[in-house]
Amino acid sequence: MTAATAEVAVFAGLRGPARTFTYAVPEGMEVAPGHLVRVTLGPRSAGGVVIATDVPAPPSGIRPIEAVIDPAPVLRPYQLMLASWIADRYRCGLADAVRAMVPPGLARRARAPVRVRKRARRIPVELALTEDDAVRDATATAPQRDALAAIDRSLAEGGAPYLLHGVTGSGKTEVYLRSAATALARGLGVIVLVPEIALTTQVVARFVARFGERVALLHSALSEGERLDEWRRVLAGEADVVVGSRSALFAPLARPGLVIVDEEQEPSYKQESDPRYHAVDTALELGRIARATVILGSATPRVTTWYASRSGDIRSLPLPERVSDLPMPPTTVVDLRLELRVGNRSTLSTALRTALERTVARGEQAILYLNRRGYATVVLCRDCGYVVPCPACDIPFAYHAAGPPGRDGGRLLCHRCGRQGAVPERCPQCGGARIRHLGVGTQRVEDDVRAAVPGARILRLDRDAVRRKGAHAAAFELMRSGRAQVIVGTQMVAKGFDLPGVTLVGIVNADTLLNLPDHTAAERTFELLTQVLGRSGRGTAGGRGILQTYLPEHYAVRTAAAHDYAAFAEAELEARRRFGHPPFGRLVLLQTAAKQEATVRRRADVLSRALREAARGDAEVLGPAPAFAAKKAGTFRAQIVLRGARPDAVLDRVDVGTEWSIDVDPVTLLG
Question: What is the value of pTM for the model shown?
C-alpha cells in the first residue's frame, strides 16, 4: 500500500537544514526509508532522503514529493539508525548526518531531472596497483594467531569491539587481511579505514593483491565520477571490501560484519565541519547497531581507547613483538641545550650528523622528521625586533625558500590562512637592512642534510612538496627501490613507510607540539615520535633512532625513546585525572567568529553567562577566551569550553544559536 506521507531529510545549502520536512506521497508512488527523492523547498527543487513514512502531517497542508530518483533505497536501515545517532551525539541536523552518507554527485543529481545513461566505469588509479603478496601463506606469530582466533569467534557470535595494540612492525596489517578473509567467507562485508588519503595507496595495494575486484575505494580525493561509481559498486553488491578515509565508514554494504580502523589514534578521524563526528566512535556505534566486529589498530592508541580496554569496554589483542623477531630500534636522546653550549647551531647534532654520514656511506637509508614546513618560522629585524606578520591573522609569516635564502625569490607564507607576501629587503618599521630568518623548517633541514651528505639523493616530504597527486606514492617508490637515500619530512613520514632499507631515523626536534596549550599535546607528541622511530630497523640490518630535544626529561620524550607505551599511558592518565580531561570527563568546544572583535566579545559574554547559569554541576564553563587561532583570514574568533561529566545536559538547557559551532568530544582545543 502506498504511504500517505514521508519525512525527508532535505539537502539544501552547504550544511543542510537543521530539521527534516514532511511531504505527501503522490498516489501510485512507492517510497521507503532510504529512498533518494526530489522535493520542493521554498522556490527551488532539492534532493533528500526519506527517513520515515506515514508520519503525522502538519495542519497547514504539505507539498508532494516530486520524484523518486533511484528505484532502490540508497541508504540501508542500519545507516539511517547510525545517522540518527550522529545527529543526537554531535548535535547536528539529521539532514547533515544523512548527507554525509551519500556521495556528493548523487546528492546533486537529485536536484533536477537528468538523463541515469550508460557509461564505462571510472576506475581510481589506486585500484590498478598491486604488490607481491609474499606473506599470504606465512606462518602467523603466536600473538597473531590469538588475535585471529578471538576475531573469528566474534564474527561468529555477532560482533564485539577490539583494540589490536601492536608495536610498529608487529604485523597488524596481516591480521586485518586474514580477518577480512574470514568475514568474507561468512558472507559479511568489510570496511577498512585509514587516517589519510595518502596512505590508501599502500593499503589498497595489499587488499587488491588479496581480494582483487572485490575491493572498492572511497575517499574525497577521487573525482566525483570515480567516487560515485565505487559507491554504486558497493550498493549493488559488486564490491564487499571498502578501503578509504573517514567517510568510507558510510559505504552502503548489505551486511557489514567487520570494521577496521587503522591508526585509530589519528586526529584526522575527526570531521572538522558538520556533522563533526569522530570516525572511531562512530565505527564503534556502527558495530553495536549492525552487530559487527570492530578492530581499532594502533601502536600508540589514544589513552581513552587504552583506558577502555583496561576497563573491559573494549577487548585487548596485544601484538607485543615485531614479526621475524626483529628488535625495536635503540634510541639515543640528544639534549640540544648541550649542543648550543658547544657552539653547534646546525639543525643536526654531532651525533645525528655522524650517524647520517655513516648510514649513507654504507648504502643504507635514513628518515629525518620535523613537524614544521618551510625554511624559517619567523622573519625578524635585528635592529628593532619587528616581526613580519600576516595582516589577516596577526601571526608571523613563515619563510619559504626556493633556493639559498636571500638569493632565491623566496616568499612569505601564513601557515594559518595561506596568504602570501614578498620578503622585505628592509624592515618596514625602522628601515634597517638586518632582516633575518629565525626558526627551523623542513627546507632548512634539507639544506643541512645536503651539506652533510652531498652525494646522497634527498627527498623532502611535506605539504609543499606533495601537492600533485601521487607524489607521496612516488616518494615511497624511490625509497623502496633504493634510488633515494634520505627523506626529510613532516608527519607524512610517520606512517605508511615500511622500508627495510631504513636503518636510521632522526627526530630533528621532538618539542614542536609538546608545549602547545592543549590537553592532547603530550599524547600527540608521544604518538608521532613512536611512529617515526618505528620506521627504523624493519630489515635484517637493524636500525637505530636519534631523538633531539630541549626537554629530555619530559615523560612523553623518555617513554617514546624507550618504546614504552604503558609507562606513557599511566603518566598521561594521571595528568588527565587531575584536570578532569577525557576519559575522566567529556569536553565540548563552542566557537564563534565575526569580522568585528567587539561582536565576538559580546556573543561570548552572553553565552558564557547563560551556560554558567545552566551548568548545575554537570560541567565547568571555561572561558570565554580568544581561540588559539584568535584571528584567521581577517575574522576574529572566540571559544568556550564545557568540561565535565555531562556537558550535553548543559547544552540541552541553553539555546546556543546558529552563530556558534558545537564540537562534541573535540580532539584538540586549538581549532
Answer: 0.90
